[in-house]
Write a structure and sequence with these properties.
Layout lengths: L1 H12 L12 E4 L2 E7 L4 H13 L2 H8 L31 H22 L13 E5 L6 H9 L12 E5 L5 H7 L7 E6 L6 H17 L5 H8 E5 L2 H7 L6 E3 L16 H28 L6 H15 L4 E6 L7 H13 L17 E4 L2 H5 L3 H6 L4 E8 L3 H5 L6 H24 L24 E6 L4 H22 L10 H15 L10 H13 L1
Parallel strand pairs: 3-4, 3-5, 5-6, 6-7, 8-9, 8-10, 10-11
Antiparallel strand pairs: 1-2, 2-11
Bound molecules: 6-O-phosphono-beta-D-fructofuranose.
């Protein structure tokens, strides 16, 4: 099978994208229209890929995911992010009922804390109403909530519109430093969000925030400050308690929820503050609808599976290593960063389940930005550079709801904005695929090599009716399952992240050397030791 695919790859590589019989490559699921007609995939290749995936027993892998099986083998855990969006206890298998019950309890606790905030009844040490939330977290405890809140601004209910929400993630303190200049400590609630409750970045930012609060309220007991101005979200509640957060203000989630899959859990606290529980639940329902589709749809019409096969084909057989994420919508400006963690932390692996070195490439490098901004920055490289790139365009057809939030006098202008934006999205996908020597020749009669577009860059177009909490839930879940399917095809574990651990440990000893010249860690290379001495000299 692999040989057949290899042969077909050699064949299509030498072809122009517009000479491939790919024009019927599209799928529809609910309000999603997934077009992959600009891929080097014809009917025969698609059939081969589907056969390949059948032989890999993908249906079994999918049912293992949606069970309590410990598919995260290196950490001996199951991967239960999907359970966070399972609608009711009755639909959950017996083995998972206790965890699901906990999920429901956690959501109930989260929802009661949020109600107090929305009601204006959460008071700080000076009895002032809390109207500012600062989420302190990093990676999955930051990127998901920040991305969703930025995407769903127009879904903020009346009772949350007065609340400002901020994110602090940088280890160098910059985020906090800036924030301290603008926020009112008397009205601020810090959300210490960390699955492990031991991530240095978050620990240090939270401790600095506490220090700042103590300095602002010297007359208040620290326990009072902690109670009125801090909540903790973690799967290690004992650590949060040790840090001083009262149990009633600690929200938990299960160990089996990976950090980068945790926005659906109580880590989504700031999301639910921003958009309200009703919209938060709609986000979960959207994700659940994609979960069901992934489990039940035939392989041929299974959106995450087909998306994964397209990627698998491009990476493994056509050697594409650069994946662009190009949302044509300012509301999704944080999506590329979010997907970077989801895809690269999950599938950036070089050994298979057995620990054997792989002989093929795995996760491509993901990058991107809002499409139209990229057009004036890095598209030059996409069109005329030397890298083989593949793109996911993401665009919403109908933005009526968003436009209605604008002042009446400029609503027509915003309609125009949306249309030119979509026109640009479609135009760029065409040009990247087919180049200037295709049907577009009439626009570009230049023979000047500096003005030639070679084309040949494949892309997917994810066209969604409109951006809502529900459709955003579907979109994120779509990518989660694409990542999962790719991991199954590559025979890797997408749920661990050992590659981020050792750097943290080395940083601990490096830190000692920065504190004290005599404690310089001699295992470090000469170049690094010299750099450290220079840093100490500069200070
Ligand atoms: O170091 C990587 C990582 O473990 C991510 O997987 C995780 O999302 C992030 O750090 C934050 O971890 P935590 O929520 O435990 O602070």
């Amino acid at each position: 099978m692999l040989n057949c695919l290899q042969e077909r790859a050699i064949e299509v590589k030498n072809k122009k994208l517009n000479s491939i019989e790919n024009q019927n490559n599209y799928l529809i699921y609910e309000n999603f229209y997934f077009d992959f007609s600009k891929q080097y995939i014809d009917k025969k290749i698609l059939a081969l890929l589907l056969n390949f995936v059948k032989n890999r027993d993908i249906k079994r892998s999918i049912s293992d995911l949606f069970s309590d099986k410990k598919i995260n083998t290196t950490e001996n855990r199951s991967a239960l992010h999907w359970l966070l969006r399972a609608p009711s206890l009755s639909e959950v298998s017996n083995g998972l009922k206790p965890i699901h019950r906990n999920i429901i309890d956690n959501v109930t606790s989260m929802s009661s804390l949020i109600k107090i905030i929305h009601d204006g009844a959460w008071l700080g040490v000076n009895n002032q109403v809390i109207d500012c939330i600062v989420n302190i977290g990093v990676g999955g405890s930051d990127l998901g909530p920040a991305m969703v809140i930025s995407a769903l601004k127009e879904f903020r209910p009346e009772n949350s519109s007065h609340i400002s929400i901020h994110f602090v993630a940088t280890m160098d303190g910059t985020d906090l430093l800036e924030l301290f200049k603008t926020i009112d400590p008397a009205k601020t609630l810090f959300v210490y969000a960390s699955k492990s409750f031991s991530t240095l970045d978050t620990q240090s930012n939270a401790s600095t925030a506490l220090e700042w609060m103590k300095s602002k309220f010297p007359g208040s007991a620290v326990s009072n400050i902690l109670e009125k101005h801090f909540i903790g979200i973690t799967s290690k509640p004992d650590k949060a308690e040790n840090w001083g957060i009262p149990t009633k203000h600690i929200l938990t989630f299960d160990e089996s929820i990976g950090g980068r899959y945790s926005l659906w859990s109580t880590i989504g606290f700031s999301i639910a503050v921003a958009i309200g529980m009703e919209n938060f639940n709609a986000l979960l329902s959207g994700a659940n609808s994609m979960d069901e589709h992934f489990q039940n749809a035939p392989l041929e019409t299974n959106l995450p599976l087909i998306m994964a096969l397209v990627n698998f084909w491009n990476v493994r057989f056509l050697n594409f290593q650069s994946q662009l994420i190009l949302p044509y919508d300012g509301r999704l400006k944080l999506l590329p960063a979010y997907l970077q963690q989801l895809e690269m932390e999950s599938n950036g692996k070089s050994v298979n389940h057995k620990g054997e070195l792989l002989k093929y490439n795995t996760s491509p490098i993901l990058w991107g930005d809002v499409g139209t901004k990229g057009q004036h920055a890095f598209y030059q490289l996409l069109h005329q550079g030397t890298h083989a790139v593949m793109c996911d365009f993401i665009v919403f057809a109908d933005s009526e709801q968003q436009i209605l939030t604008a002042d009446k006098s400029v609503q027509a202008r915003f309609k125009y904005h949306k249309k030119i934006n979509i026109a640009n999205c479609l135009a760029q996908a065409e040009l990247l695929a087919f180049g200037s020597n295709s049907a577009f020749k009439k626009f570009n009669l230049e023979s000047n090599p500096h003005k030639i577009y070679s084309g040949g860059k494949p892309s997917n177009m994810i066209l969604i009716k409109e951006l809502t909490p529900y459709s955003l839930g579907q979109l994120v879940s779509l990518y989660e399952h694409k990542v999962f399917t790719l991991a199954a095809l590559w025979d890797i574990n997408p749920f661990d992240q050992w590659g981020v651990e050792l750097g943290k440990k080395i940083a601990d000893t490096t830190y000692l050397g920065l504190e004290d010249d005599n404690a310089l860690c001699q295992e470090l290379s000469d170049g690094t030791l010299r750099l450290m001495k220079q840093i100490n000299n500069f200070q």
